[in-house]
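TA notes, week 10

Several of you asked for a full example with nothing omitted. So below is the full record: structure tokens for the whole chain, then the designed sequence directly under it. When grading your own attempts, check the secondary structure regions first.
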């Protein structure tokens, strides 16, 4: 490439991909495991005083540990390992406790972004963000907090991918690092 003055122009590199947001499902799905943990701890503490045989005590404690592992720890690990990352170029969805699954959707493939809320989700300010990529079934980001903010950011990023420069609130908050802060908590 040459400039108008005849000198050679340096090739321009595409802008670096930046992380816009890292999201998890709404934490309200952990309410039931926490209630179960409190109930099992209280019930086990009460029942320990009622049993007299050592094998009964071991069976009681073993059962309590099993219920806590399956009913409390596994749901927490499932929530903790499920993460959605939105960058300036794509959406990356990761999930799985024992088997890791990773899906990516480029912003260029996204046709439509919509929100679906159940009454319970509306009560807690969360919702499902549905992303239509032209397949039979849309990609669904389940139970995200502040889904309207996520939808607005995705619309803005889709427009930025089609236009020469980013505009709007996400562009105004871009720091020099790799993470863009938006939707403060």
């Amino acid at each position: 490439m040459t400039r108008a003055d005849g000198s050679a122009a340096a090739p321009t590199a595409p802008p670096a991909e930046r992380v816009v947001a890292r999201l998890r499902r709404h934490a309200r799905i952990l309410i039931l495991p926490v209630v179960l943990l409190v109930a099992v701890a209280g019930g086990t503490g009460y029942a320990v005083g009622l049993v007299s045989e050592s094998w009964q005590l071991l069976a009681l404690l073993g059962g309590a540990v099993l219920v806590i592992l399956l009913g409390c720890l596994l749901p927490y690990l499932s929530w903790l390992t499920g993460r959605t990352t939105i960058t300036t170029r794509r959406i990356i969805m990761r999930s799985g406790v024992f088997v890791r699954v990773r899906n990516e959707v480029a912003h260029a493939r996204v046709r439509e972004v919509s929100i679906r809320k159940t009454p319970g989700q509306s009560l807690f300010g969360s919702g499902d963000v549905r992303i239509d990529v032209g397949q039979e079934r849309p990609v669904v980001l389940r139970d995200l907090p502040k889904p309207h903010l996520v939808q607005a950011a995705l619309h803005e990023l889709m427009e930025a991918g089609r236009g020469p420069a980013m505009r709007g609130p996400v562009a105004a908050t871009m720091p020099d690092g790799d993470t863009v802060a938006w939707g403060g908590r």
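The beta strands are 19-23, 83-87, 90-95, 101-106, 112-116, 126-132, 139-145. Use that as a sanity check on your answer.
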